[in-house]
Specification:
The protein is an all-alpha fold. The protein contains 17 helices and two strands. Strands 1-2 form a two-stranded antiparallel sheet. The protein starts with 55 loop residues before the first helix and ends in a 6-residue tail after the last helix.
Length: 335
């Protein structure tokens, strides 16, 4: 228990200003001079953005399991009392949950596949919103800014851990070096929400150490249980309730089950055995990946197709590229 950042659970044989997005959303990250993927697979003179087709992130973020990973991130992020209070106090996530989820996905897509200018602009908007917001500590009553670097770091680390954990556990075969590179690359998105990349974990060992340090500060208070209740049964029109129960609840349950054991203990709600969750993640990943990528990527906002038109056919995101190009992707030259 405790090392949620590196590998899957063991198994034999892997109008009103909005509050900080609690899910796959704002992360930091420096737009450094040597972008992770600049210059690979691109059309002549095309802007590869902050990552580019040679990066691990480019190929991972096109995977359909990112949606389940995003829900896991929500569950994990809600365990920080101040972070979740900042969301609850500054937004009505219950009424605008789906819009919030889509905005978060749009943010991640823009950072990963958009131009450098579009990514910088999106980060600037997030920083501007966060600067205006504050919330009340649920234990002490103290007012605190929601752009407190410690809170931004928690949101970022919980997100990156969830993305990496679900992708690997569901069958995306990353080498240890590629997993480290993924964590390092995403310090780029950390800068965009106001963090100093030098203080953000740069590999899976650093991410694991961060979780060990932060765990004493985590708890499942009323706000966290409110998020849990919402994720288990988000409000939908009456006609859509059967579909929610049939499709959403199993996926949300899978996201919850993929949390580390200590998170289940904090929530006070059991989960199926880790081996069962891993099998379900792999099966779900296989089913979702069987849907033609071109069809999946046509869903709004279409960042991947736009990026491929900009960068050329060699920029197509694919886990197969990660498997066959490990030697290239594992080369030195981090963000």
């Amino acid at each position: 228990m405790g090392n949620t950042a590196t590998a899957p659970e063991p198994e034999p044989g892997p109008g009103r200003a909005r509050g900080p997005e609690p899910g796959p959303g704002p992360g930091p990250g420096p737009a450094s001079a040597s972008r992770p993927g600049s210059g690979s697979g691109s059309g002549s003179g095309a802007d590869p953005g902050l990552y580019g087709p040679a990066s691990v992130t480019w190929h991972c973020h096109g995977d359909p399991m990112m949606w389940i990973a995003g829900v896991r991130a929500l569950y994990l992020q809600a365990l920080h009392p101040r972070a979740v209070r900042g969301v609850v106090e500054n937004s009505d996530f219950r009424r605008d949950a789906w819009g919030r989820l889509l905005r978060t996905a749009d943010f991640v897509g823009t950072l990963t596949y958009g131009t450098s200018e579009a990514a910088e602009r999106a980060g600037g908007r997030v920083r501007a919103i966060h600067r205006t917001l504050s919330a009340t500590d649920p234990d002490t009553g103290e007012r605190f800014p929601v752009d407190d670097p410690e809170l931004l770091l928690w949101i970022h680390c919980a997100q990156i851990d969830s993305f990496l954990h679900v992708l690997r556990r569901s069958g995306v075969r990353l080498t240890a070096a590629q997993a480290d590179r993924y964590v390092d690359e995403n310090r780029v998105n950390a800068r965009l929400v106001g963090l100093d990349p030098a203080g953000v974990p740069a590999d899976t060992a650093g991410l694991a150490a961060y979780f060990e340090r932060i765990r004493p500060e985590l708890a499942a208070g009323p706000d966290a249980h409110s998020v849990d209740d919402f994720l288990r049964g988000p409000p939908v029109p009456a006609l859509l309730v059967p579909g929610r129960n049939l499709l959403w609840r199993p996926l949300a349950g899978l996201a919850y089950g993929s949390l580390p054991g200590w998170a289940h203990q904090l929530y006070g709600r059991p989960a199926p055995p880790p081996r069962s969750i891993t099998r379900r993640l792999r099966l779900t990943g296989s089913v979702l990946r069987s849907i033609p990528a071109g069809l999946r990527w046509k869903l709004p906002p279409g960042h991947i197709l736009k990026a491929m038109r900009r960068m050329g056919p060699g920029s197509r995101p694919s886990p197969y590229t990660l498997r066959t190009s490990a030697a290239i992707l594992d080369r030195p030259g981090r963000a």
